[in-house]
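Hello forum,

I keep getting stuck at the same step: I have a sequence, I want structure tokens, and every attempt I make locally crashes halfway through. Rather than fight my setup again tonight, could one of you with a working pipeline run this one for me? It's a single chain of 257 residues.
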Amino acid sequence: MRSKARRHWNTEAANAWSPAACRQARPTLAAFWAILFASFMSVAGLSQSIHAAPPDGAAQPEDKPGEAAKEVALFDGKTLKGWKILDKIDFDRHGEVKVKDGELILSTGQFMTGINWEGEFPKLDYEVTFEARRIDGHDFFCGMTFPVADSHASLILGGWGGTLTGISSIDGFDASENETTGTMDFENNKWYKVRLRVTKETIEAWIDDGKKDHKIVDVKHAGRKISVRWEMDTMPPFGFATYNTTGGLKNLKLKKL
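Reply #2:
Ran it on my machine without issues. Output:
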């Protein structure tokens, strides 16, 4: 019985792998590979469709948390929406604050006129751009107070007689007596493009006078004492002031880095 069974199995195995049987199995194998290939292409196509850009006119995905935000306008060119007129300390006899022809005007006060931003404002990794001009007077037409981590500082343009630039204050020294102290001739009624950048390590500022983009501040603030002068105590987190001078602002924008 064993020999007959063994011979029977061997005969079936031999018949299964005979040339005729293999020829008969080819269509089945071909179908198997065709199905496998089609499945692979279907998965690849799905993956490609997932990573492809959306069609024209389709809604774009929203920014993920932590991604840099787009540029935001802080002044609408028509109203003082979002801004508060300062009226304490040296601002108690401020000049008129108004909007005219797309310009935010801080008129001459005795001695300071200022506004501060009432909304939220980043503490680090941001950039502020705007245009400023001195309309009348001989002192600073832009004293911009801004956050630096948990502290604040002020960028001064045209102070101490009309030409001084710098940051107040670093390690207790104001814009007239620290390493950011500089001078620049500012013409009345001429617009200057200003850019301020604050990162985790540095404070940088530039002024474009139409001929050249001057870098006027480049200082590392880590480990330094950053503060504002006492006159600016009511201005944080962000704001602008003039001293015995009428100044104008426009195109004021904020961008997170």
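The chain has two domains: 2-51, 72-256. If your local run keeps crashing, start a new thread with the error log.
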